[in-house]
Specification:
By secondary structure, this protein is mostly helical. Helices cover about 20% and strands about 5% of the residues. The protein binds iron/sulfur cluster (SF4). Iron/sulfur cluster (SF4) binds next to helix 4.
């Protein structure tokens, strides 16, 4: 799945992803500084870097950043404030595209694997919207 800047910008929310630079630094240190999507730019200055991170730096919140774990009072760790659905962990290798883990040898999976192309980004504070469905 390619990550397109215009698409990410169009789907982003017009609010800052982070309250301040400390929050942003803590989060990017855990996620973006290890992510293969940004590695060519980060390590070699190639390309323009991760467009999701770029949109974040423009003071907007990309839809790819889903809320991370919260406690009963809604508090969160700065490093886990969001979960980036496009994160590519180091050591994952390959071409940057997701590769599902293989089933254990001699076993079938319990459930069919979802087609990654059908993923939906759900904002926790999204207002329900009625849509018409043509039968
Ligand atoms: S894909 Fe997500 S985790 Fe990776 S560099 Fe971009 S914003 Fe950071």
């Amino acid at each position: 799945m390619s990550v397109d800047y215009d698409d990410i910008l169009a789907r982003s929310i017009d609010e800052p992803a982070f309250s301040n630079g400390t929050e942003g630094d803590a989060w990017t240190a855990k996620w973006c500084c290890r992510c293969l999507r940004d590695a060519p730019f980060r390590n070699m200055g190639r390309g323009s870097g991760c467009p999701i991170l770029l949109v974040t730096m423009m003071g907007r919140r990309p839809a790819e950043l889903l809320d991370g774990p919260r406690d009963e009072q809604g508090r969160y760790s700065m490093a886990d404030q969001y979960t980036c659905v496009e994160f590519r962990r180091p050591g994952g290798g390959g071409d940057g595209e997701p590769h599902p883990r293989p089933e254990p040898p001699g076993m079938d999976g319990l459930f069919p694997r979802p087609d990654r192309a059908r993923r939906m980004y759900v904002q926790p504070d999204a207002v329900p919207t009625e849509v018409s469905v043509d039968a």
